[in-house]
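ok trying this again, last paste got cut off
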Amino acid sequence: MSANQRSHLAEAKRWVVKVGSALLTADGRRLDHGVIHNLVQQLVALRERGCEVILVSSGAVAAGVVRLGLAQRPSELHDLQAAAAVGQSALIRAYEDALGPHGITTALVLLSHDDIRARDRYLNARGTLSTLLRMGVLPVVNENDSVVTDEIRFGDNDTLAALVANLVDADALLILTDQEGLFTKNPTEHADAELIGQADVTDERLDDMVGGGGQFGRGGMVTKLRAARLAARSGTTTIIAHGREPNVIPRVAAGNSLGTFFTTDIRPESARKQWLASLMHSKGSLTLDDGAVISLTEQGRSLLPIGIASVTGNFVRGDLVSCRDGAGKEIARGLVNYSSAEAEKLIRTPSSAIENVLGYGGDPEMIHRDNMVKV
């Protein structure tokens, strides 16, 4: 892609803007209403350009901590859920107070992984968000922290923002953080760290830059890179920028060189493939031989039982499973046609022999290509 790719941002009409707790709260203790008003002013400016905007916002727990009079952020799950439940109304009230004078209606949309995992609920969420945008409403999206558990949560609002971008086929995803963008090294530890102004989202070298040891490697940039790659599945361009940069939103939207701009040559996938990619929790994994890996990654074919070397986990027909190469790297995931017990029996089995092995017939594929997405 060309170096002036950022200029195309001026043509983007549908934006998802994600802002995290580090920007919205004062040291995690309370909502910073000054920051919220400044953010809203920028969102209004974006809308005045004729753009549709969805805001993915953190901050509910911090607001709940203050309203409950807690001395510090709780650590127990149920206490966190209670703080999120109490704080969610304070968070949306803060946005309503800031947006009200501009005549903009807001809508709070709380999503959980169950809303994504079930195909009908996924389509319903897609329809709801699209309808709100058509009505001129500014949706404020957050994870439904008051009911989710660690096992079924998205885990971070970067991932949630990318999934929302997929849901609505957004043109651009802007992730506002407390860093200038993605650096070649941890800038707090290396004076020679350089800001990456533009990068191909599929470039594997980026993984080394965000995946090193220390707090930086384990922190937010890992999830932000993952979010950029997930958003690319719907053709969405992602930018990571510092949220306290003056007028960062309108400047990024105008194509100014702020933060890290992720380019992609990935063709937008079908709505079904995007839904499959959004499923975060697999029930097991299938290790494939080299021939099956090539068949899936280079030829786009279905996974046949004969290409399976081993089976891990406990799953049933229709569950999401991970497909891995001999080194354990995930190469694809999809909805399986057989249970884990059946899959064990079908290891290295030609499709023509499935009935002989199981005693009954079934699908010739372990995972059909229409129910599979590469990762």
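PB: full thing came through this time. Residues 282-374 form a domain with the Archaeosine Trna-guanine Transglycosylase; Chain: A, domain 4 fold (CATH 2.30.130.10).
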